[in-house]
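ok trying again, last paste got cut off:
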Amino acid sequence: MDVTVLKKSQVDYRIRLRFIQKIIGYTLLSFVALLAMLPLLWLLDGSFRPKVEIFNVPPVFFVTYFKSFSSYSFASFIKAINDWNAHIALWNSVVVTVSGIILTLLVCSLCAFAFSFMRFPGRNTIFVAVLATMMLPTGTMVAASYLILLKLHLTNTLAGIVIPYAGSAYGVFLMRQYFIRLPFSFLEAAIVDGAGYVRVWWQIVVPLAKPALAALGILQFRTIWNDFLMPMIVLRDDTLHTLTIKLQVMQSVNFNVPYDAIMATGFITALVPIIFFLFFQRQFIEGLAGGIKG
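nice, full thing came through this time. structure:
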């Protein structure tokens, strides 16, 4: 009886110890998450405050707590829209990002399909050459990209920003790593039945590769949405500016910098990718894990 009681007490002790460990672990993770979110929370708080309260030290929120909400208003967002056309920049960013993602998914999935299932001379050499471009710094390709866009008369157009995003070496690599895990028997059966490569790609491979496509789409969303270099070089017209360029233009004012409008525009710029990732995080993790395993 004493042995049984002793074993039971040991089990209870282990259960309590694991519970305490979980509590400590969750507390530490929550603290780290809060630290990571502090810039976003400060950006959110500042976007609703008057300009005079944004840079108060210490911040108004930590001094007056809930009383600080009394000064909240949408004046910063209204100023960003009326004075700086932030809504047009938001629309341009959405158009460029969505178009760039669609074009990237089409081009990368087609290239990956060719490298995975088609047999042609020099296939491995070309694939290695594609991967080698990942070693090149982005800045080294800006001049060549701009000259090509200039020859095609695509400078100062949204299309001039979208088209360069189509060629993603990492996107081709990620899609190929996922495609080679697919059963080749399905493709052989479809080809024997008379289906061409394009039909096999569209009706068989693409539906099976939705997790990988979602992962690539999220990665490309982050890249395109936050890109500053190409829009800054290609775009000249103020009505074509994306949010990243609009923020730079607003900060370059020599007198009376609109910090309140900058906070509002910056919060929108940061919020959209977070919402996008929260909606597609499951597909992103599944696709990325599948690509790495392949």
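cool. The first helix runs from residue 2 to 47. The chain is about 75% helix and 0% strand.
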